[in-house]
Amino acid sequence: GNHFAGSLDKSQYTLEFCTKGEKKPTDFDRSWPKGDYCIFKYGDCPADFAAGYVKWDDEDSLNKNDWQGVLPDGVYDEDTIQRYCCRSDGMPTEAIVLPTDQPFYLFQGKREVCQKVANMQVSE
């Protein structure tokens, strides 16, 4: 199973997020490594990333959408639009180095293969 906070079943899912809290880069931020992956958008996309989105046509009757706190960029109402940033300038089979002290979300990029991350395991 996955190791993320939240739940997933046939009719609904719950995702819990931790965000940096600052939409602008700080002096402590690192550059994202080359690869083939997408991340949730929060503020401007980092250098070398392109913006995109996915729209979820949520249930119209008995819609139980709920949200609170700081969320990735998007629209969270009767339908859901989740915005993301993608880059495709490296091979997903070549491991990239990212902080690994907490689990995080990466999405498949153009090659439809999960990006390898050094010292991490993939859940698809």
Relative strand content: 25-35%
State the helix count.
Answer: 0
The overall pLDDT, averaged over residues, is 82
Task: State the major sheet.
Answer: 5 strands, antiparallel
Low-confidence segments, given as residue ranges, are: none
Order of helices and strands: EEEEEEE
The helix fraction, in percent, is under 10%
Number of strands: 7
The termini sit apart by 9 Å
Shape: globular
Helix/sheet category? mainly beta
How is this structure best described in words?
It is a single chain. By secondary structure, this protein is an all-beta fold. Helix content is 0%, strand content 26%. It is built from no helices and seven strands. It has strands at residues 6-8, 13-15, 36-40, 50-56, 74-76, 80-88, 107-108. Strands 3, 4, 5, 6 and 7 form a five-stranded antiparallel sheet that branches. The chain has a two-stranded antiparallel sheet with strand order 1-2. The model has no long low-confidence stretch (mean pLDDT 82).
What's the layout of helices and strands?
Elements: E1 6-8, E2 13-15, E3 36-40, E4 50-56, E5 74-76, E6 80-88, E7 107-108
Give a brief description.
With 124 residues, this protein is an all-beta fold. The protein has no helices and seven strands.
Features:
124 residues; mainly beta; 5-stranded antiparallel beta sheet; two-stranded antiparallel sheet; globular
